[in-house]
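Batch job 17 of 40 flagged for manual review because the log was empty.
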Amino acid sequence: MNDVNNAIQNGKTILGIELGSTRIKAVLVGENNEVIASGSHDWENSYIDNIWTYSIDEVWEGLQDSYQKMAADVKRQYGITLKKVGAIGFSAMMHGYMVFDKEQQLLVPFRTWRNNITEQAATELTKQFNYNIPQRWSIAHLYQAILNQEGHIQDIHFLTTLAGYVHWKLTGKKVLGVGEASGVFPIDLETKSYNQKMVDQFNQLIVPQNLSWKLEDILPEVLVAGENAGTLTEEGAKLLDVSGELEAGIPLCPPEGDAGTGMVATNSVAQRTGNVSAGTSAFAMVVLEKDLSKVHPEIDLVTTPSGNLVAMAHSNNCTSDLNAWVGLFEEFTQAIGFEVDKNKLFETLFTKALEGDADGGGLLSYGYLSGEHMTHFEEGRPLFTRSSESNFNLANFMRTHLYTSFGAMKIGMDILTKEEGVKLDEVLGHGGIFKTEGVAQSMLAAAFNVPVSVMETAGEGGAWGIALLGSYMLNKETNETLEAYLNEKVFAGQDVKTVSPNANDVEGFEQFMERYKNGLAIERAAVDNLR
């Protein structure tokens, strides 16, 4: 305890904050890279004028609340008022679209990664660049706004992401970590900055618009892990800590997206490693040994926080619909007079899934609370269905909803492993779905046919991941790579639980996916009938 107290008092700790889709979490990390205090704030996106968004006020209220709760946790545990830390890092849900005028005013409400409204732009840019541009990428949102002839386009002075926005307001620096920047615009792996050829192509594409800016004028600077990304200003300190106790002058590491911090938090930044982050959305990140043979619209090419090539199979939907069903069971238990702990309810229902048939008993579900780009649905339409011959019981019901949480992502992973021949030694899982030991791990091992590991720190998530990037910036040795730092300074001796794929379950998941793919045409027809 004395070592922790000294670290806090002497400003040797690291603060990491991540703005996730449903929670903003702040963690304070000690000198041994362990979490010593935390605080969180729950929030939800809003669907306003056909746009998934969060308001600017919600951003700052959530950040301030999570920080205050973390600082209160420090005071409660150690009796110390937090005044300084060694470094700070900010992470947030990936990409999206935030644009500001020269007065630093937000021009349109924040458009999150969840919006599938840029299909025309994404398709045209993919063809123009011969490089896959997903709908959620910032450049797709920008070009779609241009194609739509939206009034704010002429006034754009700065384009960034949520992580970049928060960092900018706290430091005055318009920068992004390369992992997050790779979802703004394609990255040149040699220069670790935006691909200049594609920048020039984009500028040529928008010449007819007679805009007052070129792309390079409005994009943030790209930094790699380990670089200093500015310091906390006096204004920024007061904005983050409304109590006024936090001191200015603290260095910040480059802001990253949750994809990059997920790689760091699972030690999945080396080649032939991969990780799956499963929450509101799901994405598998595979660090590649070489480039893919061709463009795949289902596969995003991004980078690690140090700028190495990564293939991402991303789905907009994962656990939201599953959580809603668990909430329904909770309502039932309350209705009959029983109060069941929410964690116990999840554990019981998840464990029950292990008793189900390998293929889910013929049941089928699509947890599309929002649109799903991987399967070409612009809007969310959750669906659960079965035939008269299905084996409809609780075990199969839960197994089906766990399977479908990985269903859309599995389509992308099959392209990597079956078409491109990408080799994986193991996958690291993190996110709430993995909290019940061995259950979601088994389902994911069946989906990918590869061992799936969960570390004892898996629950720490992206806030811890960005704190580790802050620690790397502050404490790395000369020429020490991020991979080496994580292996030797953070994860050495870590307790890891690994589940290998069961052949029967692998076959069962493939059978489920056949139903899943065949049913997509039926669901699309149903969506069309509802319009």
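Reviewer: the log was empty due to a logging misconfiguration, but the result itself is present. The longest helix spans residues 503-530. Unflagging and moving on to job 18.
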